[in-house]
């Protein structure tokens, strides 16, 4: 029977856990909540590919391309600065003010709890959602309903529930030990929930579940490649003898052959046969069986599930000097930005008060990862200053330099005079 560990000494069967879940569901006020529990159950436990291998988050992460995709997306978003802005609207002019001293901004930027940093929290949420379709974190609040701590929760420990009043609630299990307490039942307003692709708008679908055939093929090909080197190396075939061997002779020759020619370190060694023995090669090399081509295709195939450009997982077969920069920009726009938008919107919905929602916004800053080389940056800054878009101090801040006195003047291209001087420039007597 399948079991799930909840402490070091106590286990509970899957059947019992599902039964207890339905008992819990019937006790919910406002009508019994429902959940697509078969999908949740199969995505977390039962994913047997046609290749005959089990695919779960642990085995999937052993596939280097899958690991690299999840790591790249989660860490590249986690390293982006996230800022909280307040917008004011006056005479159709919008002015933004930085509000990073707000408590909610401090939580997600610096210290969500006593253990994690802001980078840890965001990268965890994205990694969990990228693999399992859902990333969860519990919001602990004070008596005034202000968020004071945020705790990440393993996705397999959370069962989302639909309630008939149009809200979500979450049952939190204890299969994964954690150093902080989370209630066994959490309201939707207190649970950060980052969803991947969703078919109902409420729960994300597991990439591991839907990509089980792709991942199963990759796991199987890895095993095949390893077995090729472990058992056959560069020698494989049949040993033929003109006469029947005795049991002692058979065992001695087999042991001698395995010791001399099995394993990658023995590849290419000379075979010495006795008793009129003849070696006939019958196994195919990795090239003959197109194993290498298959593994190369699997890199691109796994990348498709994440909208990941192959060059980001060190596959440069289709990258050139002329297109690599544009591929990097596409990676930010097509792969990272959708995930970042999910984080921004969920933080706004769950961490801001209702009176802040109309004018306060969380926004990631992409400027660092979209910078060019030193020459490109210098050209960009010069054009921004000369066009009047940047002040000198804006340019210095962009280049991580301190402001200077008199650097807040704006210049326009007319001999680089200030904007105020340009108003009277053409009225001077000649």
Structure overview:
With 430 residues, the chain is α+β, with helices and mostly antiparallel strands. The chain is 39% helix and 16% strand. The chain has 14 helices and 13 strands. The chain has helices at 14-26, 37-44, 57-60, 64-78, 103-109, 118-132, 207-210, 212-232, 247-261, 291-304, 324-351, 374-386, 392-398, 419-422, and strands at residues 3-5, 11-13, 82-90, 93-98, 134-141, 147-153, 158-162, 168-172, 185-187, 191-195, 237-240, 278-281, 360-364. The strands form 5 sheets. A 3-stranded antiparallel β-sheet has the order 4-3-13. Strands 6-5-10 form a 3-stranded antiparallel β-sheet. A 3-stranded antiparallel β-sheet has the order 7-8-9, with no helix packed on it. A hairpin with a 5-residue loop joins strand 1 and strand 2.
Topology:
Elements: E1 3-5, E2 11-13, H1 14-26, H2 37-44, H3 57-60, H4 64-78, E3 82-90, E4 93-98, H5 103-109, H6 118-132, E5 134-141, E6 147-153, E7 158-162, E8 168-172, E9 185-187, E10 191-195, H7 207-210, H8 212-232, E11 237-240, H9 247-261, E12 278-281, H10 291-304, H11 324-351, E13 360-364, H12 374-386, H13 392-398, H14 419-422
Antiparallel strand pairs: 1-2, 3-4, 3-13, 5-6, 5-10, 7-8, 8-9, 11-12
Helix pairs in contact: 4-6, 8-10, 12-13
């Amino acid at each position: 029977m399948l079991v799930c560990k909840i402490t070091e000494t106590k286990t509970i069967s899957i059947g019992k856990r599902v039964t207890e879940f339905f008992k819990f569901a019937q006790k919910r006020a406002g009508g019994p909540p429902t959940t697509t529990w078969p999908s949740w159950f199969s995505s977390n436990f039962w994913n047997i590919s046609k290749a005959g291998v089990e695919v779960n988050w642990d085995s999937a992460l052993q596939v280097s391309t899958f690991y690299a995709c999840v790591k790249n997306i989660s860490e590249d978003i986690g390293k982006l600065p996230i800022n909280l802005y307040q917008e004011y609207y006056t005479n159709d002019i919008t002015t933004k003010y930085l509000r990073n001293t707000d408590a909610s901004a401090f939580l997600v930027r610096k210290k969500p709890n006593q253990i994690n940093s802001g980078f840890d929290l965001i990268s965890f949420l994205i990694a969990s959602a990228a693999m399992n379709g859902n990333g969860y974190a519990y919001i602990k609040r004070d008596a005034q309903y202000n968020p004071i701590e945020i705790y990440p929760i393993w996705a397999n420990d959370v069962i989302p529930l639909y309630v008939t009043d149009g809200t979500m609630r979450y049952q939190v299990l204890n299969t994964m030990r954690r150093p902080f307490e989370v209630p066994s039942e959490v309201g939707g307003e207190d649970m950060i929930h980052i969803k991947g692709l969703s078919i109902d708008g409420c729960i994300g679908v597991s990439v591991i579940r839907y990509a089980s055939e792709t991942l199963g093929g990759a796991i199987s090909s890895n095993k095949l490649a390893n077995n090729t080197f472990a058992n056959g190396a560069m020698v494989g075939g049949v040993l033929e003898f003109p006469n029947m061997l005795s049991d002692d002779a058979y065992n001695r020759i087999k042991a001698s052959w395995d010791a001399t020619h099995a394993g990658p370190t023995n590849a290419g060694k000379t075979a010495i046969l006795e008793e009129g023995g003849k070696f006939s090669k019958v196994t195919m090399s990795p090239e003959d069986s197109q194993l290498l081509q298959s593994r190369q295709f699997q890199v691109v195939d796994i990348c498709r599930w994440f909208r990941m450009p192959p060059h980001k997982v060190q596959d440069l077969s289709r990258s050139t000097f002329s297109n690599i920069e544009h591929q990097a920009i596409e990676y930010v726009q097509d792969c990272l930005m959708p995930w970042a938008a999910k984080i921004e919107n969920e933080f706004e919905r769950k961490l801001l008060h209702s009176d802040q929602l109309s004018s306060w916004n969380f926004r990631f800053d992409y400027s660092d990862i979209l910078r060019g080389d030193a020459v490109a940056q210098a050209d960009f800054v010069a054009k921004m200053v000369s066009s009047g878009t940047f002040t000198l101090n804006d340019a210095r801040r962009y280049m991580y330099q301190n402001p200077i006195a008199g650097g807040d003047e704006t210049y326009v291209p007319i001999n680089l005079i200030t904007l105020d001087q340009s108003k009277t420039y053409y009225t001077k007597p000649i």
